[in-house]
Amino acid sequence: MSSQPALFDRTALLARRTRAERQGAALFLHEEAAFELKERLKDINRSFTDIAIVTGFPTFWVSEFPEATVICDDDLLPLDLQSFDLVIHAMCLHQSNDPIGQLVQCQRALRPDGLLLVAMFGGQTLNELRAALAEAEVAITGGLSPRVNPMVDIRDAGALLQRSGFALPVADADPRTVSYASVTRLMHDLRAMGESNAMAARDKRIPSRKLFAKMATLYPTEADRVVATFELLYLTGWAPDTSQPKPLRPGSATARLADALKTTEMGEDAKPVKTQGTDEI
Predict the structure, then answer these.
(1) DSSP 8
(2) pLDDT tens by residue, 88-103
């Protein structure tokens, strides 16, 4: 586990999730993620019999994958070594204090050539809210405090898999926009998602009403509605196995690319070099 200071206040995070579920959690983006993950599994020519799901909302995810073992995303995951052929990390890695540690534990829980699927929020999530809040706070107080949870950028997402020991890593993004009648409705939905500010360094004082009033005037609108971006990131990785394809050693090619393309290879002096099987030029 990482020895770095905690980014998230775990106690506050769990309290926000509990409140969201008690008041009727707004999990429409979890529904989107579950649908997408099922579609991806259909494209993989394999049956998975031992499935684990790591999530902060186990009630929802057990309803989507009733055959799976569903566990909470604690710092230490109760996953036995090489016990699963599929692990899904569902919509909570962006709230982890140690995402590398979480993925390493998932990799160890997979049998060789087992599959990891991750759904999480990415770096473009709530960029409109982040910018409007920052501008409003600077205008009112002259300072800035963390108010929107940070998210990993897609450019770094694939590196998380590589550093965790996964083979054949793939990362892709699916941005979604959701429109609201007002910023107040957006903030209400974030609380219902369990996604309100739980950073350890957050200002724990009750925010001034002036802050949110100012932020509302700065938030961009479209046709008198506010639009929020939610970027869903999907990561795919495989537990290493000798059966998996390996990159070729540089210089080990047995055929020329120019021959395959039926074209002319260019030499160092930029003059055409005739290759076997091509026409004269």
Answers:
(1) B
(2) 999 999 999 999 999 9
Angle between helical axes of 183-193 and 127-141 (0-180°, round to 10): 110
CB of 115 within 8 A of CB of 86? yes
Q: What contacts 50, CB < 8 A, 6 or more positions away?
A: 83, 84, 85, 86
What's this model's pTM, rounded to 2 decimal places?
A: 0.84
Spatial neighbors of 227 by CB under 8 A, at least 6 apart, are: 128, 177, 178, 179, 180, 220, 221
Contact criterion met (CB below 8 Å) for 122 and 232: yes
User: Residue 222: what are its φ and ψ, rounded to 5°?
Assistant: -135, 115
Rounded to an integer, what distance in angstroms lies between the CA atom of residue 97 and that of residue 117?
A: 19
Length of the chain: 281
Q: Rounded to an integer, what distance in angstroms lies between the CA atom of residue 245 and that of residue 185?
A: 49
Percent of the chain with pLDDT over 70: 86
Residue 280 has pLDDT above 50, yes or no: no
218-242 residues labelled b (16+ CB within 10 A) or e (exposed): ebeeeeeebebebbbbbbbbbbbee
Q: How far apart are the first and last CA of the chain?
A: 62
pLDDT in tens, 131-149: 999 999 999 988 888 888 8
What whole-number distance in Å separates Cα of residue 118 and Cα of residue 114?
Answer: 13
Q: Which residue has the tokens 């050539």?
A: 113
Can you name the residues that pair with 153 across neighbouring β-strands?
A: none
Average pLDDT, the chain: 89
Question: Residue 100, SS3?
Answer: helix
